[in-house]
Write a structure and sequence with these properties.
Helix content: 10-25%
Number of helices: 1
Order of helices and strands: H
Organism: Slackia heliotrinireducens (strain ATCC 29202 / DSM 20476 / NCTC 11029 / RHS 1)
Shape: globular
Protein name: DUF3990 domain-containing protein
Radius of gyration: 13 Å
Number of domains: 1
């Protein structure tokens, strides 16, 4: 199986993603948002011009029938 690398931008470290959480008023509703572009995600989620970047790598295996993907 090929590996898909996704990035999630946040103002804090997310050790365990909560699928279906978050704010209901997000553009696409509740969920755990991820994107394939690390640079875009970091720039999009930076709060202030001098903010530091924190890259936290979480490697999990998720199968196509994983209920968290629903």
């Amino acid at each position: 199986m090929a590996k898909l690398v996704l990035f999630h931008g946040s103002d804090h470290v997310v050790d365990k993603p909560v699928f279906g959480g978050g704010r209901a008023r997000n553009d696409y509703g509740r969920g755990f948002y991820a994107i394939r572009s690390a640079y875009f995600n970091l720039e999009r989620n930076r709060r202030e011009p001098d903010d530091l970047y924190i890259l936290h790598i979480l490697d999990q295996k998720v199968g196509p029938d994983d209920p968290r993907l629903r």
